[in-house]
Design a protein that fits this description.
The protein has two domains: 109 residues, no CATH class; 89 residues, hypothetical protein PF0899 fold (2-Layer Sandwich), CATH 3.30.2320. The radius of gyration is 28 Å and the shape is elongated. Strand 10 and strand 11 form a beta hairpin. The chain has seven helices and eleven strands. The protein is of the alpha+beta class. A four-stranded mixed beta sheet has the order 9-8-11-10, with helices on one face.
């Protein structure tokens, strides 16, 4: 990967993670064996190079290519003649690339690990609960900076454990000053039932 692109990725990793909802970002190893192929587009270059079009395509297949700035490439023939192609004159393909969960854009190759681990499943549930609680805040017409108390009640041990494990995260994301389990206090501002597959949690909020 070009150094400039790698530096940009590192600089904006946090933003990228947030925008595409990924847990972790890593650079593909340099040892990964991938061959980049430039494929001139006949319909694009025939009007520019006329009878030389066939030569350009032939010699591009023989790797007689040099990368230039601004996405331009230079194609050499066996007489060392040069033809410069613009970005719109060719396509990029890759050999020896496992295309499962792969996305390619120009010189950038991204591979996604789509395995849903138990930890990722828990973190997904926490994000859903956080969105649910913030919708409850809107329904109760709380000020955006108002900290509130949350009560929850569930028969599902897994959901209860998730709330306990991610206590601090939920407090911060939903502006909670206190979290109470199975409390029967009569005065709450808003109630709602959260569904997670076959399990449920009763939530209540109060200033």
């Amino acid at each position: 990967m070009p150094t400039q692109i790698a530096e940009l990725l590192k600089k904006y990793w946090d933003i990228i993670q947030e925008e595409v909802n990924v847990k972790q970002i890593e650079l593909l190893p340099d040892s990964l064996k991938i061959t980049k192929i430039y494929k001139p587009i006949w319909s694009q270059i025939s009007s520019k190079f006329a009878k030389d079009t066939g030569k350009i395509i032939q010699f591009s297949k023989q790797w007689n290519i040099q990368e230039l700035e601004d996405w331009k490439i230079k194609v050499f023939d066996d007489q060392k003649n040069e033809r410069t192609l613009e970005k719109e004159d060719y396509e990029i393909a890759y050999q020896w690339l496992d295309w499962n969960n792969i996305a390619v854009d120009g010189n950038i190759i991204a591979k996604l690990d789509l395995e849903i681990t138990p930890q990722l499943q828990k973190e997904w549930t926490v994000r859903e609960i956080s969105r649910f609680l913030n919708q409850m805040r809107k329904d109760a017409d709380y000020n955006v900076d108002a900290k509130v108390t949350m009560m929850y009640e569930t028969q599902d041990d897994n959901l209860s454990n998730i709330i306990q494990e991610f206590w601090d995260s939920l407090k911060w994301e939903a502006l909670l000053k206190e979290i109470i389990k199975d409390n029967k206090k009569p005065q709450w501002d808003v109630f709602a039932l959260f569904n997670n597959e076959e399990s449920t949690i009763n939530f209540a909020l109060k200033k």
